[in-house]
Specification:
The chain is mainly alpha-helical. 50% of the residues lie in helices and 0% in strands. The chain starts with a helix and ends in a 6-residue tail after the last helix.
Length: 127
């Protein structure tokens, strides 16, 4: 009875060790876009938080001034930076499509010369 129990356990555990196929390119691109959108959303949230902190500090200083007390000097902090509208990242061109593998003037001026290879190497051909 023990061998059948071992076989049964092996059959049950086999799917656990199976590997999934690699994700298709479309899914990878979609994940990159989602990550970029998430990073942009974080920047927008930080910008809005910065603006609200500035408004709160201004209101506090104004309230102290109206109460007749001297408001504290504002601290020097970096200004709030607007991240702008979301722009999806542009994928770079593959090396083959970018034209980086060969200069454009090669076809107009071939790199060879009219000297035969035997003469260029210094050997002579005897007949």
């Amino acid at each position: 009875m023990r061998p059948s129990l071992v076989i049964f356990a092996a059959l049950i555990a086999a799917p656990v060790f199976a590997t999934l196929p690699p994700a298709p390119e479309a899914a990878k691109d979609q994940a990159k876009d989602a990550a970029a959108k998430s990073a942009w959303s974080d920047k927008v949230a930080a910008y809005k938080l910065c603006l609200s902190m500035d408004r709160t500090a201004d209101a506090y200083r104004r309230a102290r001034k109206e109460a007749g007390e001297a408001p504290p000097q504002p601290m020097q902090t970096p200004s709030c930076v607007d991240p702008g509208p979301f722009a999806a990242p542009v994928a770079p061109k593959p090396l083959e499509a970018s034209g980086a593998h060969s200069p454009s003037d090669t076809a107009a001026t071939p790199p060879g010369s009219n000297t035969p290879a035997a003469q260029a190497q210094g050997s002579s051909k005897t007949q």
